[in-house]
Amino acid sequence: MLKVxxxxxxxxxxxxxxxxxxxxxxISGRGGLQSIAIRLRQQACxxxxxxxxxxxxxxxxxxxxxPEDFSATEIRNRQKxxxxxxxxxxxxxxxxxxxxxxxxxxxxxxxxxxxxxxxxGLTEDSKMYxxxxxxxxxxxxxxxxxxxxxxxxxxxxxxRNIAYEFEHISSFAVRQWFSRCVETLDTHDIESRYLHFHExxxxxxxxELFLQKKLPNVKRYGLEGSESIVxxxxxxxxxxxxxxxxxxxxxxxxxRGRMSILSALFGYPKDEIIxxxxxxxxxxxxxxxxxxxxxxxxxxCTIHYDDLDSSVNIDVLSNxxxxxxxxxxxxxxxxxxxxNIAQENPGKKYxxxxxxxALSVHGDSSFAGQGIVAESLGMAGLSxxxxxxxxxxxxxxxxxxxxxxxxxxxxxxxxxxxxxADIPIIHVNGxxxxxxxxxxxxxxxxRQKFRKDVVIDVWTFRKRxxxxxxxxxFTQPKMYQAINARxxxxxTFEEKLISSGRLTKDKxxxxxxxxxxxxxxxxxxxxxxxxTEAKKTPRWATLVGPSGGQNMIERPTGVDLATLYxxxxxxxxxxxxxxxxxxxxxxxxxxxxxxxxxxxxxxxxTAEALAFGTLIRDGYNVRLCGQDVGRGTFSQRHAxxxxxxxxxVHIPLNHMKYSDNDADSSVEASSSxxxxxxxxxxxxxxxxxxxxxxxxxxxxxxxxxxxPIWEAQFGDFxxxxxxxxxxxxxxxxxxxxxxxxxxxxxxxxxxxxGPDHSSSRIExxxxxxxxxVDGRRTSAPNIYVTYPSTPAQFFHLMRRQMxxxxxxxxxxxxxxxxxxxxxxxxxxxEMGPGTQFRTxxxxxxxxxxxAVKRVMIVSGKLYYDLAKLKSEHPLGRHVAIVRVEELSPxxxxxxxxxxxxxxxxxxxxxxQEEPRNAGxxxxxxxxxxxxxxxxxxxxxxxxxxxxxxCSGVETQQAAEHRQLTAQAxxxxxxxxxxxxxxxxxxxxxxxxxxKKKPASAxxxxxxxxxxxxxxxxxxxxxxxxxAAQSGEQ
Length: 1033
Hints:
The chain is an alpha/beta fold. Residues 1-38, 40-49, 665-675 and 997-1033 have low confidence and may be disordered.
C-alpha cells in the first residue's frame, strides 16, 4: 500500500482511494479487483515519475490521454457475456502467435489454445451476442453478431498478415485505443495509392537489378526481398503530411537498401549514387571531406506529393557503420528541430512532435542485440529527451549476416526489446504492401495521439545474402532454396494489380522502361557529374564552413564586469515561493554572494554560472545533460533548486531580470536572438552514456546556437560512448562536413578515486586529433582538447564555443579537487572586456626570466601541487612552470613564445600524474621537442607505463604522487650551480669573447629565429639558429 507522508504537499498529490461507485464500475468494467490494484499502482507510479515535475524550459511530456469509461449498458453486457470477453481479450493478447508473418512460409502460424472458443464454453457458432463494450463494432461486425462472425472478425483483425502486441503496455488508455483502432480501421483510402506503391517497388527492384548487372562486384547491401520497405516509408511520410501537417522528417536509415530508398523514394540524384558506387566521392571534386562508405550516403531531400499543397523535407542522417549508433542522434536532432520550429511560431498551441516526424530503420539482429537500442528506447520517453515519438522500422530479413534468428536472440521476435519501454509493436508480412500501408496508418495515428515511440516489425527476406558477393547458402541452404523458388515481392504485387484490373501489363512495362532509361542515362552521366553539396539551413548559413580557413574568427569572450556581477547574483537567487535546503543556503548561496560583493576571487561553479548566464543573455540556449548535473556530481553546481516543501524545481538562470541594454551586440548575433533570451535546460539524464552522448551530438548538428554539454559523473564514464566519439564527434566533420559544438565535460584527476574514477582518457581524445606532429597543418582542427586550470579559463572556453563564427567539438578534462581548491580561483577582471581563453599560461611568479634553468611544462591540476612545492623550495625562483591549457590543436606558437624568454634554461621537463602511456605526454612530447634548442631533449617525469590508469590503494597512489612531484625538483641544485659558474665566468672578463663568438644553439633559443608558423616551409627553431650562425661565419 502506498504510504503518504504528513506534509500538505504530499497529501495534495497522493492518489485518492476510489469511492464506492467508481469502485463498482472498476470491478465490473475493467477486470475486477486486479484492475483496481493496477490503476492505483499506475497513479502511484505517476507520482514518483513526477517527483521533480517542473515547468522549467525543455520539460516536455506526452499529452495525457484518459481512457473512455464504459457505459452502464456496456458494463452489464460485459458481465453477462464474460466468457466472450475472455475470448476477445485472448485474441488481443495472443493473436500474433497465430499470424502469417513469414513471407517464406518457414515459420508457421501456431495453434493457440487460448484462441479456441470452446475452452470458454462458447460452442454454438450461430448464437447471437451483443458485442457492446466487448469488441468494437465495424461494417463487418454489427452490434448483434453471431459467434462465428465474431471469431471470423477477430481472426481477420489479429491473425492474418498483420499482427499486434499492445497488451503488455501498462496504460489502459493505450490498450483501449489500440484495440479499437485496429478493430475499426477503414483502409479504403489506401487503395487509391496502390499504383503508387507499385511504382515505388518497381523502381526499387529495377534499380537493384540494374546495379547487379552493371556493377556485380560492388557490395551495395541491396533491398531485394525487402522492397516493400519503400511502401512503408512512403505511407508513413504521406500519412504524417496529409493528415497531421508534418512537413519535416528526420530519417535514420540502415545499410540495407539505403541507396534504393534514396533513389526510388527520396529522389537522391541517381548519377551521384552511381558515381559513388563506381568509386567516386559523394562530394564535389576538390572537396576537403573524405566521404564515407557507399552505404552511408546521406543528403537532405524533398518529397512532393501531387495531392498535397506542400512538400516534405527529408533530413537523411549521416551515420557511422556501428549498428544502430545513429538511433539517439536522430532522436536528438528531431527534438531540437521540432522545438526550433515551434519557437518560430510562438502564438500557436504546441505539443512536442507537432512539426517533425522521426523515422528510424533497423536491422533485426542489431535491434535485438545492440545495447544502444535499449538505451535509446528507455531514454526517448523521458521529458527532456522525447521528440514526440519515433517510428522504428525493423527490417527483419530473419538472419544476421550468416547467423540465424535462433542464435541472435533468446526471444520470439526481434522487436521484443521494445516491450520494456511500453512500446506497442506491429508485426507485418512484407509480402503484402497493402498490409504494410495499414501498419503505417496505425503507427502514425498512435504516434500523433500519444506522442510516443512505436515499432513496426516487417518480416522480409534477403535475396542475395549479406552483400552481393556473398554465398548465403553456405550457412542457410533451406532458406535460400525457398527464396530462389519464389517470385519477387514487386512481381507478386504487380500480378495482383493486373488481375484486379487496377493496372495493365503495358502500363507496367512502359513505366519500367522509362525508369530503366533514366538509370542508363545516370550511369553514363556518373562519369562526369559533379555532386552538389547540401544547402545550409538558415541557422548554419550565418557561420563559416568547416574549411573556412582565414575566415574562421576567434573573438574576445570577456564580459562587462557589471554584467558578470549581476548574473552571479541572480544565479543564486531563488524564486519567491522556493524554500531552498539550509545547507545550500549556507554553503552555496551566501558564499557566492559574499565573494561577489567583496570583489573576491570566485570558484569554478561560479565561473560556469557566469558563462551560462551571459550566453543566455546573448540569446543562446545552453543544454546541460548528464547524470546528476543539476546538483553536480560533487555537489558544486546547484544549477537547480528543489523546493523543500513542494519539490518544485527552480532554475535561477531561467528567471533572470534584464535591462534594455543587455542584448548581445556581437557581430554574429542575429536580430531574432537579440530580441529573445536563451534558456538553460538542465537534463538529469537516465543512467546511460552512449545514447545520451549520441542524443547531444544530434542536438549540436541541428542548432549551432544551442550549446550542448554532456557531463560525465567521472571522466572515465564516457568510455561507454566511445563509438559515438570515434564515429561521429571526432570524424563527422571530416567524413560528412558536419560541424558540431558539443562539449564533453569529463572530470579528471588522480585524487584517490581508483582506476575507474580518475581519468577522462585524455590520450584517447588526442589520438583522434588531426593535429600534425610537424605543425604543417593542411586542414582545420577536427576537435579541441583542453585541460583548463582556472575558473576564468573555463569561463572563456564555454563562451568561445558559441562566440566563434564556426563550430568544433570540445573535450574538457574538467576539475574535481580544483572545484574547491582555494588557490584555483579567478577574479572577475580575468573574465572582463578584452579577455579570452589563453592556450598557454606562463608562470606568474617569474620576475627574473634569466634566472630560470628548468622549465616545467604541465597541464591541468598538477600545476597547483608543483607551484606549492616551488614556493617552498629554496631554489624555486630558478624554475618556471608553464601550463599548456589547450592540447589540441597544440599551441606551438604560444608555447614557443613562452619558453623562448627563458634563455638560460637548459632543462625542459614534461610532468604529468598519469602513467607514461596515458595522459598527454605521448601526444605533446614530439610537438614540444620541435620547439626546443638543438641537442636538448624533453625529459619525462611521471608514473611509468601501467595497464591500469592508477592504483586503487589510496596510500600507494598518494606515495606515487609525492614521489613524482619531488622528482620534478631533483637535480635543480646542479643546474643552478652551472648558472652561477657561467655568471662568474662572465664577470671575470669573458663577456667580450662571448660577444665575438655566437652563443651555442645547444643552450640558447635565439630571439632572432623567425617563428616556424610564419614560414611556408616550417623548420625547427634550433635548426634555424644554427643556420643563422653558419651564415654569419
